[in-house]
Design a protein that fits this description.
By secondary structure, this protein is an alpha/beta fold. The protein is 23% helix and 21% strand. The chain contains 3 helices and 9 strands, in the order ββαβαββββαββ. The chain has a 3-stranded parallel sheet, with helices on one face. Strands 1-2 form a two-stranded antiparallel ribbon. A hairpin with a 2-residue loop joins strand 6 and strand 7.
Length: 164
Amino acid sequence: MSLSRPGGQPDPLLTKSFDWSVADGADKPRDDTDYITRVIADATARLGVDHEKIVLAGNLRGGSMVRDVVCASPGQAQAFASYFGVFRDPMAETCAGGTHLFHSHGVEDKTVSIAGRKLEWQGEPFEQGDIPKWLGIWWQSLSCIEAAEPVNDAIALRMTRWRD
């Protein structure tokens, strides 16, 4: 097993010191979708990591980075996991192809609303995207051919599963 933890790039506008150049309209010096692709290529070439066993995962803005990579280059990993990823408008119309994807998001999340909302950040307006709408784009682009099915469980989670 191998774990690679690539870091975001310095961002002087944020209170935290690093951020990802996700598809949100913000201008960043590095193309992080390309950066992640190069990190994966390095891990497979230098460390012998089996490309078929790579899982790309991210949390919050890292979850947004996962969303960007899965839409642009779904062949970069065997599976993708996005936890509470920020979905900014404008949304992509389609994604590049099929993959295995897990997305988790709280329906009561007050920071990143699952239904999206208009906000202001450092004096600039922006809109968080509608996550169910994003999931619909993934559903179509990632070749999920069966209808969504609710999943019942013992701990009262609301979950929907699409299968290809």
